[in-house]
Amino acid sequence: MSEMTSAAEAAAPHRYTAAMAADIEARWQDFWDAEGTYEAPNPSGVLAGDADVVARPKKFIMDMFPYPSGAGLHVGHPLGYIATDVFARHQRMTGHNVLHTLGFDAFGLPAEQYAVQTGTHPRVSTEANIENMTAQLRRLGLGHDKRRSFATIDPDYYKWTQWIFLQIFNSWYDDKAKKARPIDELVAQFASGERSVPGTRAWSDLSAKERADVLGEYRLAYASEAPVNWCPGLGTVLANEEVTSDGRSERGNFPVFKAKLRQWNMRITAYADRLLDDLDALDWPEAIKLQQRNWIGRSEGARVDFSVDSRPDAKITVFTTRPDTLFGATYMVLAPEHGLIDSILPAEWPEDAKKSWTGGAATPADAVAAYRKQAQTKSDVERQTEHKDKTGVFTGAYALNPVTGSRIPVFVADYVLMGYGTGAIMAVPGQDERDWEFAEAFELPIVRTVQPPEGWEGEAFTGQGTAINSANDEISLNGLDVAEAKSRIIEWLVAKGIGEGTINFRLRDWLFSRQRYWGEPFPIVYDEDGVAHALPESMLPLELPEVDDYSPRTFDPDDADTQPETPLSRNEDWVNVTLDLGDGPKKYRRETNTMPNWAGSCWYELRYLDPDNSAKLVDPAVEQYWMGPREGQPHGGVDLYVGGAEHAVLHLLYARFWSKVLFDLGHISSAEPFHKLYNQGMIQAYVYRDSRGFPVTATDVEERDGKFFFEGEPVKRELGKMGKSLKNAVTPDEICAEYGADTLRLYEMAMGPLDVSRPWDTRAVVGQYRLLQRLWRNIVDESTGEVTVVDTEDADIDADTLRALHKAIDGAGQDLAAMRFNTAIAKITELNNHLTKTAGPLSRSVAERLVLLVAPLAPHIAEELWHKLGHTGSVVHAAFPVADPAYVVDETVTCVVQIKGKVKARLEVSPSISDADLEALALGEDAVVAALGGAGIRKVIVRAPKLVNIVPA
Fold it and tell me: Could you give the domains of the chain?
């Protein structure tokens, strides 16, 4: 320690320093925990509390679930958590009962990978990570109701995740009622004959397995053979987002193949219309709504049946948004996974098959098999890439165009996906660019059915226009516009019994199985006939068993003809069980897949409401209070949900689906989980790379004359993410140690608008540290530690100070309510600077209101000063100050006086001046009189208090 520093500390022993901040912050965090300061009472149940607090307006504020990483937090992670904390504190101070807490989304692949590498049980490493992250977040002074926290790996939590799965499994979607209903009601309809059983047999004549198969076509959770991304090198199925654009695993860079495996699915497609329509009532960013709409992908068109020339009993059904172009369909394409292909393949190539169509194979079966193997290695993204070379192979079969009667060849090509429409298309190269490219590559005819603009020299014309080349003996579309042509052809198709107008969705059912250990076990067992049975609620939770090996079995990375072997399947004692499910003890086999990590985050908002309820998912009165519909929120939901835009689609869509099913079944009153969504930006950091392109430690980089050096060698600087791998991470612990948590909170909120990404600059943190030091000095004597304020009535405070105070109260209050935290801090800083320059000690009433303004943003120093000012209750529950309107408005405003539109004078006038008084004042102004030069006045236009426009005669 230098002599200068020692002398300064001796002269000011009670100065606000990092050491003092650490003491203050730890002391008040302990106090808040001991006093239950942030506990929000429920209207009933275990967490019921103060009736007066419950009677206040409620505010349910949530952050997106954090995953407890072993790397801990860097300063970018808590940006959203600090923001919601500031907002929650302001809402408490403005009279709300605020529910704000935080749990952990703790199932997932990272812990399982760590377990595979080290042999450490995923629970052990995950709980250690949670403990570390909890300590880091606590140091920031976040005001969470700790009674409501949990982790998705807690059996008491995932008991209810399993219970919700069973509600979905035991439900079907009634298209007439437009809602989910219990499966027992569907069974009753089949049994009574109210609803016909598919086929010709009666329900009573079906075996148990046949009944299960029928119900599987209706259940909202069902098992089926589904095309999946199978990665033999990892031994597991991958989600689309885990596959790179070149068809390899993001982790490990192994080949990924398309395979059909029996998987659990959620019939989210049944809710496509409601998921779309209900977006309109949500207070979400329009960009997020658009992404959801595009993902759901609602499109209107027609289904058309094409008969297969050599197979009168077979038909190929396509969905098209442009049925008006049917006359231009010159070939058809099936996705490689389409189930009809094998049944239409002829034994030999037809005589008119062109060489370019066969791929050089001896038979159609050989050609299709080879092409399928090739297509297996491509991801859906790669298959859909624009302008890539079109590949395909002829099946040897022909279909009949229903309007022209022409025989058109049927191809298999990877640019058609089973995940959209029917997995088959009618190819109209004249009106579709991809079809045009394919037609040219395979020497197929091209017929235009829409008139392109005059002088059109392009290839396919995809725009609007009148129909051409579209007539037969029964119908003509020629000369009609697109809408009229669509309507006419659909009527004709319906009359012929070969098509119908329909709506299609891009949305596919949700693949809900993972071949992993660290996830929720399915509460499903199978009997000897393979029929799935739901475990009764009394057997929940079904806990994960111990296993010796956490990794799925891996295979030769290039061997697509392999099947998953899950970690759970190796525990035979757990898999094979004897259970009494109500009809006596029987042998069953458990499901050995686990649920995806999305499952636990689909409903966690409900558990926050009633975390200790072991008898119900949630107390209905509690759910209604916190999340039920109300004015402005017709579907109910969380009042504010804050998180990154990267979860724009999947998590939000899945959570919405679960909420709607639970709502339909009467378990909750809210049909939507999150009413208001706010996406915070990202804290970025500079990445420094050496000549090889590798990141170097950012803190060891020197800047000299605008250039950057690491260990004497030049490095390049770029702005990017913050993270351990980029060697630019700054931990909140570092900043808290050097400046204190309140400084970190202020800096992150002051960096810029919350919804905009911004670069981190450690050197700039000191600015907010100095703000807190000035705040402290304005109230506390640094030599004695005594409060320096004086008891003064507002009437005795100078007008400039009152105006500065009330403008700050008004402006900062509005900004905090609107989450404009950076501008709120600017207004508070302006007030604090004004008070710093004011001679003499502060008035107690001014000091107290200053502390209350700061409290949501820097709660520790505010709590310390609040108590030093003589208060015994926590500043957390003190009322936010209210501005006096008389001091908020400016004393004068500038009025512009114009003659014939040109400014001739500026007057300082009262904001409340009347039109008449302002007109008289303007006309008497010397500069105006001189400018008029005695001319008469035809009209005076007055817009008090800012404008007078004089029109001379």
Answer: 298-505 (3.90.740.10), 776-889 (1.10.730.10), 891-952 (3.10.20.590)
